[in-house]
Task: inverse folding
């Protein structure tokens, strides 16, 4: 249809000159030089590594955008159901290496760059991470994009184009200092679409209107308009032509009459400040993980992004001229946590207020369209917005929320008459001072499926925070989709040698698109040469990390030591404090030993990394303690190589790509029942690292897959946590003896001014030890001793490593995406012929 509307001779000319991008080395060099000379206005004489990065990225970007265009045309022609993944965070990391590997032209570029006088690693290392996320939730969204494209699903991501990503972390005198991350200086991966804009309204009033036919409509009048501008980021699938789209919205002042009036009236400064206020909406990523603080600007961000995305989705749907009832057959929208829940309300508003549908008819469409993924049971992370704030910012939406609530509560009352308490418990509106809108409840009520991200977590949400909703809707509305990771980035890209070794045994790289094929390597477990190479690769990776540590911290670490890694956001529930107390315990033990005894020890490097939310005092105290312990231990000549403590600054995706392949053991030690899934646990095991962990999140399913003999589990179970906490609160409890000694040494000033750590210790000794550090300490220490023992038996250790990798097939996001597609979205891939 589209084609027929263009006269043939025009099509001919167009086809003749249609861009193709490079195919071979010579063409790559031509494109590279062309971009350096014309796009960057540089020359042979001032082309440094950064310019070489830009030239390479632009050459690849051309290829991506050509495939992107074709993919979008194909998807529009076929006109089948699309998925829209709404996420406030996409933690993409670097794009160039990934684009090279997915497109399959890394070797071509490498050779071309060499001829032009550059080393590909240096070029890749020039790129700034796209750090538009906090942690697991944002990185999951990025892995999903990779898998959706690789599996050829017609899928778009929608997010915000933050001017500042997650802050950069510096450690100064052992303290975390936050530096703004202005990353947009030069970003070759985005395409501004100045022609794709949406006006977004805030504030004003909702005005009731009685129509001539007696019907009532509501009009949202007045207030302020901010413009959303689309920026598109092409997402290439691995080894496929499909290149999907990530659309990020940027805010700017509306070009409407507003500014001009002010401008003409001589209020130049006001016009400018309007401009700045508008731009503030997409200025910063909120740096909290697992905490919601209820700031007005955050709610503005959420509505701005939801409204722009929905406008876009609806516009696309309307072009097909279908009946509204077909909307859910064409559109699936997945909510990454509750942050996009306003999209539910916005769609209902569009259908009822703007398109004139009946309430019930509209609501049916809404519920069939949305799915909601929950990522936490921590009460402080469950989003609530104050009713007065919502009333002020989004008056019409608040009315709609009240109506949704009313109809929902009526339905509950019909099903469970005389259960007044139930009604109060499940009401979207919490009757507090001020009243609050419970976003998770709204998300559940407005979606047809709700899922958790690992089995234990999905069970827990059904038995705790959403229990009443299971009673109301029945269990089928709730489901589990266990998280995963993309093996392209987290094996092939981060650990190319391991990927190559595996491919050499399996005969191809097919395991990268069917990770279950990894089980084929278990056959080689007794192959001596294979094991040696496996071990060599780990050593190489450890040397690379040791070099990074030397370059960034000045500390020399021995690559034959056991590398023990815990890298993730710093949070009390993740229990980095348990780890560092364990390290202190080890240090005290070493100090008390004779030189003879010391000889028997396994040298260990404890490596930490992760950011604390800027306002999270306790997390910052934990970082401080780790750094202070490092200073003391690393300079103690009694200890030497037996123990080193390293804090890697500014942990991010590109650092993870160096750290993950280099671990012997990594720590996933959250208090049972608190970590919804965890995904770095999967990354480490897939790279041949063993893990020590609690029975929490996806650790449980990892254990099921790789079997208990290949993982170091310890600690109390989720089902006992509640009772243990009660014990602490009401009956007093005895602190673990060894932990008491650790506290003594801190209090005595071994690691600097003890006052700095008083509150951390008191949280355990005096304030109920909510995260059960003391209860799990003994079992943690004992299990760490087992780790040492097992590490000495290198042969067995390597066998465990190989077996574990072989059994990780389940944890690919390809499997995850297929599950969502089948059980929640009801979409099919669009295979390219
Ligand atoms: C994480 N959540 C979970 N939230 O903690 C982790 O267990 C899980 O593996 C991962 O999601 C993926 O499912 C998480 O990262 C956040 O960072 C939010 C950011 C916005 C404010 C609230 C927390």
Result:
């Amino acid at each position: 249809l589209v084609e027929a509307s263009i006269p043939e001779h025009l099509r001919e000319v167009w086809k003749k000159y249609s861009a193709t991008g490079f195919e071979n080395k010579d063409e790559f060099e031509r494109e590279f030089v062309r971009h350096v000379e014309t796009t960057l206005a540089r020359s042979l004489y001032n082309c440094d590594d950064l310019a070489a990065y830009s030239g390479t990225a632009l050459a690849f970007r051309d290829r991506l955008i050509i495939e992107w265009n074709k993919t979008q045309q194909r998807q529009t022609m076929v006109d089948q159901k699309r998925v829209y993944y709404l996420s406030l965070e996409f933690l993409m990391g670097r794009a160039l290496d990934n684009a090279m590997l997915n497109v399959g032209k890394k070797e071509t570029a490498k050779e071309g760059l060499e001829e032009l006088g550059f080393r590909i690693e240096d070029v890749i290392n020039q790129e700034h991470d796209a750090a538009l996320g906090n942690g697991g939730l944002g990185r999951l969204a990025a892995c999903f994009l990779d898998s959706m494209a690789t599996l050829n699903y017609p899928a778009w991501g929608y997010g915000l184009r933050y001017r500042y990503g997650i802050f950069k972390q510096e450690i100064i005198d052992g303290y975390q200092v936050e530096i703004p991350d202005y990353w947009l200086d030069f970003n070759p991966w985005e395409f501004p679409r100045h022609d794709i804009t949406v006006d977004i309204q805030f504030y004003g009033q909702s005005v009731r209107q009685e129509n001539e036919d007696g019907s009532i409509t509501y009009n949202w009048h007045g207030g302020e308009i901010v413009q959303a501008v689309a920026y598109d980021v092409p997402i290439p699938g691995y080894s496929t032509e499909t290149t999907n789209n990530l659309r990020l919205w940027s805010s700017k002042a509306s070009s409407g009459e507003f500014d001009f009036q002010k401008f003409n009236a001589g209020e130049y400064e006001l016009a400018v400040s309007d401009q700045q206020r508008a731009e503030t909406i997409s200025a910063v990523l909120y740096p909290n993980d697992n905490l919601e603080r209820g700031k007005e600007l955050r709610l503005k961000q959420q509505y701005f992004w939801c409204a722009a995305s929905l406008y876009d989705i609806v516009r696309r749907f309307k072009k097909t001229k279908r009946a509204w009832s077909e909307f859910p057959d064409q559109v699936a929208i997945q909510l990454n946590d509750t942050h996009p829940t306003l999209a539910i309300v916005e769609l209902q508003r569009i259908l009822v207020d703007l398109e004139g549908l009946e309430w019930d008819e509209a609501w049916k469409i809404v519920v069939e369209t949305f799915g909601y993924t929950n990522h936490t049971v921590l009460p402080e992370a469950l989003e609530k917005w104050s009713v007065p704030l919502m009333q002020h910012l989004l008056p019409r939406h608040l009315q709609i929320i009240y109506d949704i609530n009313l109809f929902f509560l009526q339905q509950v009352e019909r099903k469970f008459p005389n259960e007044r308490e139930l009604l109060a418990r499940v009401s979207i509106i919490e009757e507090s001072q001020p009243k609050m809108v419970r976003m998770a409840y709204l998300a559940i009520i407005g979606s047809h499926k709700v899922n958790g991200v690992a089995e234990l977590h999905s069970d827990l949400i059904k038995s705790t925070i959403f229990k009443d909703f299971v009673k109301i809707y029945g269990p089928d509305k709730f489901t589990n989709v266990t998280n995963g990771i993309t093996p392209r980035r987290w094996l092939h890209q981060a650990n190319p040698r391991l990927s190559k070794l595996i491919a050499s045994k399996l005969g191809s790289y097919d395991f990268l698109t069917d990770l279950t094929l990894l089980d084929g390597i278990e056959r080689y477990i007794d192959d001596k040469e294979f094991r040696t190479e496996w071990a060599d690769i780990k050593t190489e990776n450890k040397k690379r990390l040791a070099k990074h540590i030397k370059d960034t911290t000045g500390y020399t670490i021995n690559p034959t030591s056991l590398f023990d890694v815990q890298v993730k956001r710093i949070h009390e529930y993740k229990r980095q404090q348990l780890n560092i107390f364990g390290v202190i315990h080890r240090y005290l033990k070493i100090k008390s030993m004779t030189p003879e005894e010391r000889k028997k020890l396994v040298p260990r490097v404890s490596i930490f990394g992760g950011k604390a939310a800027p306002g999270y005092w306790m997390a910052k105290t934990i970082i401080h303690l780790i750094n202070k312990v490092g200073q003391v231990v690393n300079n103690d000549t009694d200890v030497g190589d037996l123990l080193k403590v390293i804090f890697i600054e500014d942990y991010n995706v590109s650092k993870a790509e160096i750290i993950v392949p280099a671990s012997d053991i990594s720590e996933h030690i959250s208090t049972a029942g608190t970590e919804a899934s965890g995904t770095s646990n999967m990354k480490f095991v897939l790279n041949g690292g063993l893990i020590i962990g609690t029975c929490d999140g996806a650790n449980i399913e990892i254990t099921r897959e790789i079997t208990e003999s290949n993982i170091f589990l310890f600690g109390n179970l989720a089902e006992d946590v509640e009772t243990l906490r009660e014990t602490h609160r009401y009956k007093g409890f005895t602190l673990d003896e060894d932990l008491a000694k650790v506290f003594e040494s801190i209090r005595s000033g071994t690691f600097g001014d003890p006052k700095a750590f008083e509150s951390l210790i008191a949280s355990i000794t005096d304030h109920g030890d909510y995260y059960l550090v003391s209860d799990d300490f003994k079992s943690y220490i004992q299990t760490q001793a087992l780790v040492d023992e097992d590490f000495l038996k290198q042969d067995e250790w390597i066998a465990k490593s190989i077996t574990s990798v072989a059994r990780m097939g389940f944890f690919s996001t390809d499997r995850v995406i297929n599950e969502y597609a089948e059980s929640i979205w009801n979409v099919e891939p669009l295979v390219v012929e």
